Amino acid sequence: MKQLAFSVISPLLFSGVLFLLPGCQDSTTDFGPTGALSGKVTYQGEPVKEGLVQFNNSEKGFGGQAVINEDGTYTVTNSSGGLVIGTYQVSVIPPMIEKSFGPDTPPSEVLKEMSNIPKKYHYPKSSGLSVDIKDGKNTFDIDMK
What is the pTM of this model? Predict the structure, then answer.
């Protein structure tokens, strides 16, 4: 159910246009070679147990995303093995939850309020986070303050 809520998140809403990369078996896409990416998300040294990490390359117009696991780890997975080589702005957002705004209004999906994901990290331009993806395996740990 948790992962289903993440699929509802509109990348347009949070970080511009993000596309899942079309895949090939040899870690190369129509856009060029890709690099695998994994890491760990922490807040003041403690693992963040839920949320989403988004990667946006506005220059090339694509990106990707990864669900944060309960131990704080994430892995960008798709059929091409990762992200196209390049520089990405990074954001970390809480999961979506259903919230009721009254008996006459249907529930809406909103971001869950989480003190361990400060709002500045919700948006790629204010997060101050970026990662350079190179061919092969890449690691990018995020320690929010």
Answer: 0.75
